[in-house]
Amino acid sequence: MPLGEAVRTALRSLAVNKLRSTLTMLGIIIGVAAVITLLAVGQGVEAYVRAQFESLGTNVLFILPGQLREGPVSVRERTPRPLTMGDMAALKDPIRAPSVLEVAAEVERFARISYRKRETRVQVRGVTLSYFRIRDWGVAEGRLFTPQEVAGQARVVVLGQLTRERLFREANPIGKTVRINNMPFKVIGIMTEKGGGSFGSEDLTAFIPISTAQSRLFRVRTYRGDYTVSLIFVQAVAEDKMDAAAQEVAEILRERHNIRYLDEDDFTIINQKDLITIFGDITRVLTIFLGAIAAISLVVGGIGIMNIMLVSVTERTREIGLRKALGATRQDILLQFLIEAVVLSLIGGMVGIGLGTMGALTVSRLAQGVNAVVTVEAVALATGFSAAVGLFFGIYPATRAARLHPIEALRYE
Amino acid sequence: MNAPEVVIELQDVVKIYRLGREVTIPALQGVNLRIRRGEMVAIMGPSGSGKSTLMNIMGALDQPTSGAYYLEGQNVARLGDRELARIRNQHIGFVFQSFNLLPRLTALEQVELPLIYAGGHSRRERRRQAEHALAMVGLADRLHHRPNELSGGQQQRVAIARALVNRPSIILADEPTGNLDSRSGAEVMHIFQRLNRDHGITVVIVTHEPEIALHTRRIVRLQDGRIISDEPVPEPKIADPSRALYTR
After folding, report:
1. Smallest Cα–Cα separation from A410: which of A338, A349, A326?
2. What is the ipTM of this complex?
3. Nearest to B61 among A323, A329, A407 (CB)
């Protein structure tokens, strides 16, 4: 029998029992929809996390005081030797650290910030001017600090978008005076919006000169009188120089901190690329894991198909006998039932892809910033997988049909 | 092609059914039968006489345990599934007591089925041949009716058209009037006689009703798996479709 006729025959038999066919397909529909949605959301999350890390700047190393312990939750040592402004300055050395392009430092604390009656709690970041260059971040209104303001420990502040909204609503904040821990600061600018960050909103912040933060606001000094910093940013000259830059930074800091040969570093260098890779791997594993769970429901759907096909073979025993009497070979019967199973699962797969795409779109709309995209690969995978499920679970019922003896089949009541 | 005069030849055909390890049922115990082209034969016998088994073997639905079966000069007894399917498709037209039509197909589609399994026909060609076969049984005006829209007699005529459509060597009918009232029975017998007389089609009818057998030209009687008589019918009855076949 030609394939076209076989497909027509299969479609007819499926159309006879529309409700049953639909219910049978439901298993595959749900399975495929789940796989499609979860893969899309997984990829969306992965892209989101990557974008978050990339928004920290390009080719950036982060240097934290203390050693990150191994284990699921990183815990810093009890009393790490702090990083200082001196450490930061030492890293900007074109001879000892030729791979370093730019360095910046940050002192951050949570603090109360108020304007008239309104008060909120934000992350106050005292930063060097190079911080804005490394993060490639600037103001939407007003201006950043001048070098003179940094040198003079001026009480000026640049607000994040969310801080501005909470304190000023619609009013123009430039030139107004806000209080941070009761100390008056003049608002000189508003940062552009960054979006929700992985480490709390980057928009619920207030930026002040690092010198002001260290000497006036938070008073952070070592016993030697050095000003300490929370975090040092190092930007490498190029992507392929990041490892070299990390090496140079480590050597300089070990020497400054008098760490002996074979002793552990008392600071941690985090490579932005490594972070992206690590979190990329984590989200990818999660995606595969969720996809695998969804795939289980596909298998369950396949068993449903097999079940219905077995019932169908029994019900249609006489039809099979008749077809054999009319000249159908075993192969013809096998093909007929196999095609029915594959058509069931393929149509289920198509509907599932449609539903899964809608699911992905819904998630994209609900979860801000996560763009769940249904890829061609996911569609191809789902289609191939559902066809394979139909084939696999259709083979047994179809062989049973094909093996029926024509006489016994014709006599079957 | 010069078709051989003998269509069916059975030589010492034995069929033994095995039920379990020890129990065997000898259904046919050495049957010799020869049917020539253009004959119309009735095979009679009480139930359990082996007539259904004989019919199944002649229809290539089953294989004899021993003996030879020549259909158009070809020994069918040792063929595989694919060849048997081809023989059933090309050389044999079945008509069953319970019609065996597929419930959802129109008359035209029922008759097209053997052509689909034969392969090699265009859709238009299939339709033309199926329409022709339905016209031969007088159903040219019922092409698009489904079985539940047809009377019993009409359903059996669709089945006959389906048996005819591949121009088989022989039509095998198993109690073809068994499920019909006597008037529809007369209709069906009339068609068999006409096909046999006007188109030279060989017809073998298995029946236990003497009245039906008297419409053929030769009666073969079976008992306990053996042929006990094989005689021509001196004056075959002519079926009149406008009247009931016989009164019960």
Report:
1. A326
2. 0.91
3. A407
